[in-house]
Input
Amino acid sequence: MVPAIAVADALRAEGAQVTFIGGARAEAQLVPAAGFALHTINVQGLSRSNQLRALRALALAAAALPRALALLRRLAPDAVMGGGGYVAGPVGVAAVILRIPLVLTEADSHLGLTNRLLARFARRVCLAFPLAGHDGPRYLITGRPVPPPAHDRAQARRRFGIDPDQACVLVFGGSLGARSINLAAVEAFAPGTRAAATTASRAPAPLHVLHVSGRRDHAELAARELPGGYDLRDYLDLAEFADALAAADLAVARSGGSVFELAAHALPAILVPYPFASGDHQGANARWMSDAGAALVIADAELSGERLREAVDGLLGDRERLAAMAAAARGLARPDAAREVARQLLEAARG
Output
């Protein structure tokens, strides 16, 4: 939803009217909060490990098509953007049936199932990364649309109560959170466990940990003994998350689409790719940042509190390396991605 809302904001800035069609998960909160109307259809993700759940998902997608057709007939849009998820399937098919120009966006380092099925019918497919076999005139590399970065670091740090002399580590793992990262973080920064940096050019500064755990694990983590300066949150809205990125000196995260938000804020990272991501796109995203010098990668199977603590202390204690990683991250940013996707949609609508 984050790329879709970023594009919607860019379209609104150009005077376009934007309406969302989505499911009942994150979009039910994020879309109205961003000031856009939301119409819902009943769909779910396609399971690759449970055949019965996969059949149910296909049945729901088929049942959602008449609803998508009715919505598009009533809304009469000049163009439709597919955001790449399973919700986009029935709406994209409806757009093709009704001959409404379709523009697709792909935020990952491989083309997802919905986009693979719809790409041949789209006016344009906007890619976050160059993809082998998808380099014809239909495809355009735009980067992943993200919200404008927060620029007032001092104000962002005041928002979270971070002292000027404190180093801040931001830990996050998506809306539900990442359990392996959540458990490693509370173990790594529990009282008395921080080790001295092994590659430090100076001693680590007093540490502030801003840990966005997701709602699934929050109650369990909050019941643990956490040190002073450990700020555990279950959720941040988009504006708060932008400030968290601006306030931090280092991030610990998965390597989904948020790698572009890390780049936009020039934030060095320790990335722990989700090992079961489709097409191993999180592994590819992590390598993209690591190869540029913007991130350190730890495999999920190798993650522990001790390993994470050593990595964090080593980076925070080596300010020259941290600055070089920040510069590398800044070099990967695509700040015009949302505006470029919006331009493609407006051209399709006018055409």
Summary: The first strand starts at residue 19 and ends at 22. Confidence is low (pLDDT under 50) at residues 193-204. Residues 95 and 340 are 21 Å apart (CA to CA).
